[in-house]
Amino acid sequence: MAVMDFGDALNLALREEMRRDPRVYCIGEDIVLGVPFGVTKGLAEEFGLARVRNAPISEAAIVGSAMGAAITGLVPVVDMHFADFVTCAMDEVANQIAKSRYMFGGQISCPLTLRMPYGIGRSAGGHHSNSVEAWFVNIPGLKVCIPSTPADARGLLKAAIRDPDPVLIFEHRGLYRVTGDVAEAETLVLLGLADVKRAGRDVTVIATARMVGESLAAAERLAGEGISVEVVDPRSLVPLDREGLAASVRKTHRVVIAEEGPMRGSVGAWLAWVIMEACFDDLDAPIARVAGPNIPIPFSPPLEAFATPGAADVAAAIRRVLT
Amino acid sequence: MYATMLRIRRSEERARELYAAGRIPGFIHLSIGQEAVAAGVCAPLRRDDYLLSTHRGHGHLIAKGGSLRGFMAELYGKATGCCKGKGGSMHIADASVGYLGANGVLTSGCVLAPGVGQSILMRGTDQVAVTIFGDGAANRGPFHEGVNLAALWKVPVVFVCENNFWASTTAHDLATAGGSIAARAAGYGIPGETVDGNDALAVYEAMERAVDRARAGQGPSLIEARTVRFMGHFEGDPQGYRSRGEVEGGRQRDPIARLRAHLEEAKLLDAAHAARVAAAIEAEVQDAVDFAESSPLPAAEDALQDLFVHYPWSD
Predict the structure, then answer these.
(1) Domain containing A67 — which CATH number?
(2) One domain for residues A27 and A144
(3) ipTM attached to this prediction
(4) pTM for the structure as a whole
(5) Most CB atoms closer than 10 Å: which of A19, A43, A70, B278?
(6) Do A105 and B95 lie within an 8 Å CB cutoff?
(7) How many structural domains does chain A have?
(8) Side by side, which strands form the sheet with B50-52?
(9) Is the pLDDT of residue B129 over 80?
(10) Which domains does chain B have, with CATH numbers?
(11) For residue B101, what is the nearest residue in chain A, using CA coordinates?
């Protein structure tokens, strides 16, 4: 077992997969130097500039060319740089990558991975802070995963790269320097499997990405008051481990769903319905949600802090469902 | 090429009749009048070369060697269609002949093509990727991104602009600053050429030069083939926005008649031979129509198939 940070765990996954399969290559802006998050740092030295491809600022062509390569024999890993910029390639993702296999009756396949660095952090402002995973959960034809730990990041990225279908992996920028245990042996985390990050009896908190850590902090605080909190990380949104989430709720009978994105129309709204449908008779309280306010992420630190859900919000929601 | 153009023409004319008779759902965008571009572009290509196309892609599929039966059945939405009825006219595809699809979003091929070219280079083959798009499509951002990237990567790609001077109902002069799409190539440092898109031989020759350059590792080219759209943007379009003179004038430059005249003059085709070719094509097209008519529609639950290669065990 080694200890490494989330960014290094992703780097390790890329290195392992690129060694394993010569068809795998990386493409994105500034990835040779690995600026700004360092995930692709050092890869060009080992694999060369054809397999670690710096691209011009051309999101539509970066994503579109990756699809062109994927449907003709290569395995691209696209670095979106900031997930917010995916809007510059929305046709390529939503209409081309997601739909072409289906519309062509299964004649082609698109084994492409799209890495999405995202999330609130350090006053980056409205164009560099967004949680956009909900958009893609709503597009049939894409798989979506969202790790919260270095081990899950390494395992999910490997699984995503090996997946013969298009996979988006959401990497919260606030997690890149968070450390955790990572197995020495190559380990995959299969898509479609949730993970209980902390076992408990009184309430289930379903949380994604940065909110997993916030929920664990809230759980630790509340343990001192005799409240036993179970934290479940879906890890994969499409496919979703419904049974894994439901099993926890059947045990605790109370649910808080915690995410960073805006309250309206987000992943948590959909998960709340999933739990309602699977566990209505098991619930002893309405489902509570922790999410961001319905505003773009503002710049000034106190404003940004207002827009950023955290442990205190999760703790308050847990108290609400327990009363 | 003559046979190819005739095959396209007769298939499109039959599709037009069948659509008017209510046999084909949705919309169709016919390429009647533009056959020389399809035939001239595809003639120098191998089966394993790739072609990305537009919403007006019937002729491109046929010229690339796609199955007429699969094509016609797909227009009908039958289970035996090349896309199992999932795509229809605007999303026909035949990967077995390298036809990586018609597309409902214009210009999309311009950004896919550099990646196909990259794949060719990294796999070490001498294949070529061609993307055909219209005059209107050349004004979308991905055209510029795709040409720029292809030029930077020096990929074996040919960008073919099939300029029929109409982007749906919008005239070329009102949409395209600078007037020339071929001239844009110079801005990206690649060869750009304008050809008469109604002259199949001229298209063929320009294409052959571009394909040879690509296979020799000299990178991408842009060809603007100027042609005429005989029918409306879609079937049912009354074309009130075009002058009768313009439409009639276009028909005077019928590319099939033109190639036929050239072949007859060069003594490569006589009336008897032409009649045999016409009869053979008529039989082929009729066979495709019969196949489409007699094929079953897909079962409703088939709608759930073909989304993924690997279906998730959960959800």
Answers:
(1) 3.40.50.970
(2) yes
(3) 0.95
(4) 0.96
(5) A70
(6) no
(7) 2
(8) B50-52, B129-134, B157-163, B221-226, B192-196
(9) yes
(10) 2-304 (3.40.50.970)
(11) A104
